[in-house]
Design goal:
16 helices; 476 residues
């Protein structure tokens, strides 16, 4: 079912090179061919038949082998890219993006025919959806009436870029970080922003420091760029200054990626004292900080970049607080790293969709973004309280409401993912997040992934029934 390997002869620089080509076996899979290809691809990654960095066949070659249209393969590759399984670059080809444990987050989920135990997916960290929300409908109508809808098919214009920068500066200033519009680079989401910064500040092969439990996006990018990650020990407030000092000295690293607010997966939010301690180490060790601030608006805490204006580059987006599908992100900073990113517009500005940028600007300007972020923050607080009530040991949870929960599983539970799935809940294993250290007996759930509070309540009750609990604060 995973696929077979065929061999073909290709000519490169007049030398014959033997190349393997992954060809999936679609027998017995989804009758929709492009979906069947994505299923086979996800399975091959999960089992190790395809590894991170493996090059996939061209659209035309795979279509010829499978006897399908090229458009079918193109659609399959597009879907696999959307699910973060692969990445394609013009002129280089298409490559496997992530290991099986990260790929599992984006794999196609099979429908559960047992209506009494419908699987509730709490594995993907997406924001809650307001069922009464009509903001997008209204905004699209306004754009159409203004005659600006046709501009969505063009490249971003200098006037639009200038407007985005000015508007984004006001959005960031509301968090306490005052920057000039020229200090801000808009991007098509936080992941693209993080990629652009890493490409600019890092050399292939050099170490990058991260929390010892970190989000899958940075792990995938590090593999793509050939950047070895080194985990830094954490406690209930996130990365510890003394640990950062020790690992920075041992590795001679120059770059640190931090999530100070509602860290994924632990939900840890740094105190002012913790941020100041890390800032002191960064100054003393001459470290460049990349601050992933996608949850900062939900935490209502000021960015760490305020403490390190010349050595901290802020990466943020609307994905967790305003709208996941808007694909609007920002790189912000007054230091040399942010200026270097701004000098390479092909990695940031060109992929920006004008329609997404127009919507984002309007929502910031008319207060819609702020209102939506407040709604999301309030919904997170309600769902967090629900989790505290329904899961045992609730007194040990962090006080700052988080959209995700880092939960303990019984030590005798050999396969937490399978055990949770058996009771109808999809979660994420600690192995997805672990760097350097051994993965703890933990799972991460998204409290905002469930469609309703009632659905979340059912999922939490199922998890509590098999022994899932909040861990003690001292147990990270």
């Amino acid at each position: 079912m995973i696929g077979i390997i065929s061999r073909r002869i290709v000519w490169v620089n007049r030398n014959i090179v033997r190349q393997t080509m992954w060809t999936p076996d679609l027998t017995g899979r989804n009758p929709t061919r492009y979906v069947a290809i994505v299923e086979a691809l996800a399975e091959a990654i999960a089992t190790g038949a395809l590894r991170p960095g493996d090059r996939l066949p061209t659209h035309r070659d795979l279509a010829w082998c499978l006897k399908v249209n090229v458009s079918t393969v193109s659609r399959a590759y597009a879907e696999a890219t959307r699910r973060h399984l692969i990445s394609g670059e013009v002129g280089r080809g298409t490559y496997v993006l992530s290991e099986s444990r990260e790929a599992a987050l984006f794999a196609l989920k099979e429908a559960n025919d047992n209506s009494a135990l419908r699987v509730i997916d709490l594995s993907t960290n997406i924001p809650a959806i307001d069922p009464a929300g009509t903001d997008l409908d209204s905004t699209l109508l306004e754009i159409a009436r203004s005659g600006r809808l046709a501009a969505a098919l063009d490249h971003p214009t200098p006037a639009l870029i200038a407007r985005i920068r000015a508007t984004a500066a006001s959005w960031i200033a509301a968090r306490g970080l005052e920057l000039r519009p020229t200090d801000i680079v808009p991007t098509a989401g936080a992941q693209q922003a993080l990629l652009a910064v890493l490409l600019t500040v890092c050399n292939t092969g050099e170490p990058v420091l991260v929390e010892e439990l970190t989000f899958p996006g940075i792990k995938a990018l590090a593999r793509q760029l050939g950047l070895p990650l080194h985990g830094v020990a954490m406690d209930a407030q996130g990365m510890m200054p003394e640990a950062l000092d020790r690992v920075a000295r041992a590795t001679s690293a120059r770059v640190v990626v931090l999530v100070p607010a509602l860290q994924n997966p632990t939900g840890a939010t740094m105190s002012e004292a913790r941020r100041a301690g890390l800032a002191e180490v960064a100054e003393r060790r001459d470290l460049q900080i990349i601050e992933d601030d996608v949850y900062g608006t939900l935490a209502a805490t000021p960015p760490m970049a305020m403490l390190l204006p010349n050595r901290c580059t802020l990466v943020t987006s609307f994905s967790k607080s305003v709208a996941a599908g808007l694909r609007f992100g920002l790189i912000a900073g007054a230091g040399p790293a942010a200026r270097a990113v701004a000098a390479e517009p092909q990695t940031t500005l060109w992929p920006l969709a004008p329609l997404m940028a127009e919507i984002a600007c309007r929502w910031i300007e008319d207060g819609t973004a702020l209102r939506r972020a407040k709604w999301q923050r309030d919904e997170v607080a309600v769902r967090h309280r629900l989790a505290c009530r329904l899961l045992p040991n609730g007194r040990t949870v962090p006080s700052k409401p988080s959209p995700h929960a880092w939960l303990a599983v019984p030590p005798e539970m050999a396969d937490p993912i399978a055990a949770c799935r058996a009771v109808g809940v999809d979660v994420v294993s600690a192995t997805t997040f672990a760097v350097t250290r051994e993965a703890p007996a933990r799972i991460r759930i998204s409290l905002t992934a469930a469609e309703t509070r009632a659905e979340l309540g059912r999922a939490l009750e199922r998890l509590a029934a098999i022994g899932v609990t909040w861990p003690a604060i001292s147990e990270m």
